[in-house]
Every structure is written in C-alpha cells, then in structure tokens.
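Project standup — Tuesday

K.O.: blocked on the structure for the chain from last sprint. Re-posting the sequence here as requested.
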Amino acid sequence: MDSLTRRTALKGAAAATLLPPLAAPALAQTPADTAARAPRQPLFGAVSWKLSNGLTVVLAENRRAPVAAHYLYVSAGAGEDPAGKSGVAHFLEHMMFKGSPHIPSGAFSRTVAREGGQDNAFTSRDVTAYFQIVEASRLPLMMRMEADRLAAPLIPEAETESERNVVLEERSQRTDAVPRGRFREAFDAAMWGPQHWRGRPLIGWENEIRAITRQDLVDFHAAHYAAANCTLVVAGDVREADLRRWAEEFYGAVPSRPKPARDRAAPLPAAPEPRLITRDPAVREASFLQSFAAPSATWGEATKSDPLEVMAHVLGGGPGSRLHRALVEAGHAVSANAGYDGDVVGVGSLMVAVTPRPGVTQERIEEIVAATLATLVQEGATEAETRRAIRQQTAGALLALDGLGAAPRMLGGALAIGLPIEAVEQWPARMEAVTQAQVNDAARAVLARPSIATTAWLMPA
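H.V.: unblocked you, prediction finished:
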C-alpha cells in the first residue's frame, strides 16, 4: 500500500509547477478588475449528495475515456491516533485489505488486478483513503467490495502480527534508514512535541507500533469508519443516475452511525525545542529548516489561508522568489524554498528549506533568511510580486487537472477535512481575488512575532 502518500491538493499542484511570466502580464489591473475577470465556471462541475446513512457522494463526470476512478475517504488519519498509540490509523489501513464478510483476505487487490485495474490506499494526518481505477463497467464491482469492507472488515487476529512486521519494515525503509527521514521526524517532534498529534510521525513511533493490539484497530474502526464520516468520490465515464442507483444499492446498506467529532488538541504555547542541531555520518550536505505555526483553512484566522498561499510563493516559490534571489542567485545555496501547509485540520505551518553551497556557514544562511523574512514583514510584497505569484499558482494548478486522479484527490481531500466543494471548484477565482494588502497582513501575522517556531540543521558528522 502506498500508505503514507499525502493527498494531492489543488494548491500543492500549483506550488509544484512554476511557469515563466506570461508575455503580457496584466500587472496594472486592480484586484477588483482581476477578480471580475476570474473564471467563474467550476473546475470539475462536480455534483454531490448524501445517502440516508450520512455518506457524502460526489461525481465528477469525465467522458474522455471509458475509465472510472473510485475513491473512498475516511475523515480520520494519524491526527486521530489515540494518545500513546501512534500508528493506529495507518496500521488499520493495512488491515482493511485482510478481508470482509464477502471478500477473503488478499482477494480485494487480486480482483482489481484481474479486472485490469489498479488499487491502493494512503494515510495522511487528516484522512485515510482507499481507491481503485478501473474500466468504467467494473465500477459497480469496486463499489460492492469497498462498501463490504467499510461496513465490516475482518481484521483477523492471525494476520495482525505479520502485518505489524510489514508496517515496521515500512518505517525502517522510509524513516529509520533515511537520514533526512529521521531528521524530519525529529524536527516535527521538536516543534510540536513528540506526543502532540502534529509532532507524532504518521506511521507511528516504533515502540507504539509494537504495542498496538487488534482491539485498538477494531476500536478505531468503530469510532471513525461511520458512513457519515466518509466521502465517496467517483470521477470518469459515469452517469449520475447510475451512480445514484449503485451508491444506494451498495453503500446505502452500510449501517448508520453518528459522525464523530474531531477533537484535536490546540498547539502548545511554544515549541518544546526552538532549535535543533542533528549530525549524521551518512549525510554529505547540510540542510536548513525553519517552520512557523500558521492559520489554516480550518483553524485560526481561516481567511488568511489563501493570502498565506500567495505569500509563501512570493517568499520561496522558485526562480524569481525572494529566497531564491537572496540565496541561490547570490551563490550561497543550491536550493531555497518556502511552502505553506494550510489545507489541513487544525493548525497549519509555513516552512523554509535551504540547502547551502559547500563552505557557506550556518550563520550566513540564517542571517540571509532572517533578513529576507524581516524585509518581507517590514516592506511587504509588491503588487507585481503578488500578481505574479497568483498567476503562476493558478496556471500551474490548471495544468494539473488533466489526469483522471486529480478530481477525486482534490475534491475528496477538501471535503474530508470539512471544506465545502466550492473550496476546490472556485479555487482559481478565490486566488485571483487575493490582494496585496491581504498578503502583507498574513506575512505580519505569521512572521512578525511567531510564538511557535523551530529552526533546525541537519549536518554531516
């Protein structure tokens, strides 16, 4: 299982695609003019409805090929792991493939493969998702099998220990054997606390994985896998009338249970370790990380989420950004980036990452980063920078829409964390409406006097 793959959000797709400035940038336009001409048509034209048991169903019809993507999102991830039992959500994701009343252990994936399709699952901090991509006529079979294990997975005791070893090996390969994986794990724990839901690793601490019992898995499923806590997203060559009928037939039979509340702890007043230095003999080049707590789309001043997305791009969104000019173009670093993690449940974060050139000191890198942040706070982003960042992000996002998996990942990821469907469908229009003043206000709110922040170095031994 591709169990730790993070959901692909629309904003993340935009940040990953950096386009050169357009030949005739409309920098002279006012924000109101820009908002007025922003595209009003929805990105996917998706329709949604609820079943009587509370399950949300979404259809993004796409008839370009006779293929269907079927995603089931559970609004529970590693952030819902019980205290002292990190890794339960991810472990359960593995055990969901171990059979259900009408599907023997291991038969789910074999059946998908026999039909010529692909299936997988992933756990993030906020969601757990299961998906299949198949020829469109095989969609009812996928829905029948997925509904069967949603309602009553077997979670067999006889297979728990062997799967625990699979999880431990996954942790070993992705974290324990990878210096940067160990460093990032230590960084999160330093900033948020090793037992805070943001500070625990998604896969879990090794000693806590070893202590998870079958009953822990059963209890997690009973607490979080209610139909009302799930979102079904189907994209592809599927008609609404057919999907409504199949959803009622297969998922409508899942017993109704109350939707659990997401009671996530607030962040600590300050980072437990505001500074972290790690030396590792397996590392050849240094890495610098700095992170600041920030509002998100669901926490704090949520209206700052879109401006923070733009601000992060101005600060470190590739060539032309302030960090790139100050560090990479000036010859001090190999790379310098900034990213904003705001499509999350609970507190978000703004992160700066730098890989220095050999011979450049830690002090020099930190001095340049601090000066760049201070200038942004004091002088603000320019109107030209703001428009450029918005143009690059929205253009990059639209390029990401071509694949069949884009719609279910974007729509499902947003709905599963409590955002409305319009958060995705109208995202470009919202971004176009962000103003220079909003960007600068967001920068001051996060960077001027951060209460929760950690600075860290991974150094060669």
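K.O.: great, moving the ticket to review. The mean pLDDT is 91. The first strand starts at residue 47 and ends at 50.
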